[in-house]
Write a structure and sequence with these properties.
Rossmann fold, three-stranded mixed β-sheet, two-stranded parallel sheet, 34% helix, binds S-adenosylmethionine
Length: 161
């Protein structure tokens, strides 16, 4: 699927779980997926970025931590996702997250003026995504038939509990 590995990023965060060394980093591969020039807003000197990223993880003590952990076990840092989007896309671009989870990528798209597209397999997390998008962007999520999510949210929560 991928033509080229562009870089390997190390996300440094507070230690999480682990029964030997507790894990304090995650690896993020940057791939190129099609021919032609890649988009980089870093190479142009507009953004000063390295391949070591330091952002709080889900386990870092901060406002909203407990809600984040209740929403999804691997919720990501939205500033980190927004910075990654700003590095390699242009305003109005479509950004796709095929494993949308807690919807952090989609929230980051709203923060950066990109068009987010996502797929989430688990209905429980799909509704978490819609609720977080509504809270963080002020938009009103709607079903295909035009019904506002707020009208059916509690009955849907009962279905997937
Ligand atoms: C590690 S989480 C993703 C975190 C997310 N990218 C974020 O920024 O918050 C992975 C998610 O992928 C979902 N998933 C697993 N298999 C899937 C599939 N085949 N299609 C869509 N989503 C899937 C899981 O339910 C889980 O919520």
């Amino acid at each position: 699927i991928f033509l080229e590995t562009k870089n390997l990023i190390v996300w440094v965060k507070d230690p999480g779980m682990g029964n030997f060394y507790r894990s304090a980093h995650e690896l993020c591969y940057v791939f190129k997926v099609s021919a032609g020039d890649h988009t980089s807003n870093i190479a142009l000197g507009r953004r000063n970025r390295s391949n070591v990223w330091r952002y709080p993880g889900a386990n870092t003590f901060r406002k909203g931590r407990m809600q984040d952990l209740a929403d999804h076990p691997t919720v990501k840092n939205r500033k980190m996702c927004a910075d990654a989007i700003l590095d390699v896309t242009r305003p109005g671009d479509i950004v796709f997250d095929g494993f949308a989870g807690a919807g952090t990528t989609l929230v980051a798209c709203a923060m950066t003026g990109r068009r987010g597209r996502g797929i989430e397999l688990d209905p429980k997390y799909a509704d978490v995504i819609l609720r977080r998008l509504a809270e963080q962007t002020g938009c009103e999520p709607m079903l295909d038939d035009g019904t506002p999510l707020s009208q059916v949210a509690s009955s849907r929560a009962g279905e997937v509990a």
